[in-house]
TrEMBL record:
Coiled coil: none annotated. This is BHLH domain-containing protein. Its main location: nucleus. Residues 65-117 form the BHLH domain. Keywords: Developmental protein, Differentiation, Neurogenesis, Nucleus, Transcription, Transcription regulation. It holds the Pfam family HLH. The keyword ATP-binding does not apply. SMART domains: HLH. InterPro entries: bHLH_dom, bHLH_transcription_factors, HLH_DNA-bd_sf. PANTHER family: BASIC HELIX-LOOP-HELIX PROTEIN NEUROGENIN-RELATED (PTHR19290), PROTEIN ATONAL (PTHR19290:SF169). The lineage of its organism: Eukaryota, Metazoa, Ecdysozoa, Arthropoda, Hexapoda. One of its GO terms (molecular function) is DNA-binding transcription factor activity, RNA polymerase II-specific. GO terms for biological process: axon development; positive regulation of transcription by RNA polymerase II; sensory organ precursor cell fate determination.
Length: 127
């Protein structure tokens, strides 16, 4: 199995301490909803008061890195899917076509071919 580093999104799995412009629960007096505050003795209520919740801001650099990582994952997913279709096409009979079958045509042909092979097995006389 590939490691998270190979996908380029390890930064999302760790919590960077030196990001400027990003506020979290541990900085600026912001407490998790319904959790303990390290500065006070009591329990913080989880009231729906909008002023009591911390709104963390994500920097444009982090957003860009996340988008690049998502694009890389999607690109890899599509490459793997296309490789699987290419491999499936190698097992299907070629009917003298000059062009490559589309994904839809490949799935239709595979379904038809499997049904035909099944019918051949059913018709085979048992000896």
């Amino acid at each position: 199995m590939e490691s998270p580093e190979s996908f380029g999104y390890v930064y999302m799995l760790t919590t960077p301490q030196s990001d400027v412009g990003v506020t979290g629960w541990g900085s600026g007096g912001c407490t998790p909803p319904g959790g303990y505050d390290s500065l006070s003795e009591g329990y913080q209520s989880s009231s729906p008061d909008p002023g009591s919740r911390c709104k963390s801001r994500v920097t444009p650099l982090v957003l860009r890195k996340r988008r690049l990582a998502a694009n890389a994952r999607e690109r890899r997913r599509m490459q793997n899917l296309n490789q699987a279709f290419d491999r499936l096409r190698t097992f299907l009979p070629q009917l003298g076509q000059d062009r490559q079958l589309s994904k839809y045509e490949t799935l239709q042909m595979a379904q038809t071919y499997i049904a035909a092979l099944y019918d051949l097995l059913e018709q085979r006389p048992s000896a």
